[in-house]
From TrEMBL:
The lineage of its organism: Bacteria, Bacillati, Actinomycetota, Actinomycetes, Micrococcales. Residues 1-38 are annotated as: Disordered. Residues 38-72 form a coiled coil. A zinc finger (dksA C4-type) spans 118-142. This is RNA polymerase-binding transcription factor DksA. Keywords: Coiled coil, Metal-binding, Zinc, Zinc-finger. The keyword Kinase does not apply. It comes from the Bacteria. The keyword Zinc-finger applies. InterPro entries: Znf_DskA_TraR. One of its GO terms (molecular function) is zinc ion binding. PANTHER family: RNA POLYMERASE-BINDING TRANSCRIPTION FACTOR DKSA, RNA POLYMERASE-BINDING TRANSCRIPTION FACTOR DKSA-RELATED. Residues 116-144 form the Zinc finger DksA/TraR C4-type domain.
């Protein structure tokens, strides 16, 4: 039966098959990719947590130093550099916290099967972007 079908339009049938194949590849996310994504997001989460702990340690050190020096005189040059260090660390800490929240949101999206889809426009996120930024939940266009 297959022979009879092929004999009617040999060229046409072949072209259709190839086209269908390509479409299916784009639409269905690979299950293997999902496991790899979960692992890469988990690795990023650990790295961000470590970085956050590091900043917290530095802030605690600085706080301890501040108490010892009782920085009530503003004309002390040490006091100035210390407060700029303080705001640098505070800024860093906020950035780490924000990144941790993003990573956790990405982990939740992987668990619910929404991973790899832009949270804003619903289109697929480019694999290169997910590789560079595992916690990305929007495509590059929506992130701009
Ligand atoms: Zn988008």
């Amino acid at each position: 039966m297959q022979c009879a079908r092929g004999a009617v339009r040999p060229g046409y049938g072949g072209g259709m098959a190839a086209g269908t194949e390509a479409t299916r590849d784009e639409r269905a996310p690979m299950p293997d990719g999902r496991a790899a994504r979960a692992a890469s997001v988990e690795a990023r989460r650990r790295a961000v947590r470590d970085a956050l702990a590091e900043v917290d340690r530095e802030l605690a050190d600085l706080r301890g130093m501040r108490e010892v020096l009782s920085d009530d005189d503003e004309h002390d040059p040490d006091g100035v550099s210390m407060s700029s260090e303080w705001s640098r660390l505070e800024g860093l800490r906020q950035a780490r916290l924000a990144e941790l929240a993003e990573v956790e949101a990405a982990a939740a999206r992987i668990a619910s099967g929404e991973d790899g889809i832009c949270a804003v426009c619903g289109r697929p996120i480019a694999p290169e972007r997910l590789e560079a930024r595992p916690q990305a939940t929007t495509c590059i266009d929506c992130a701009r």
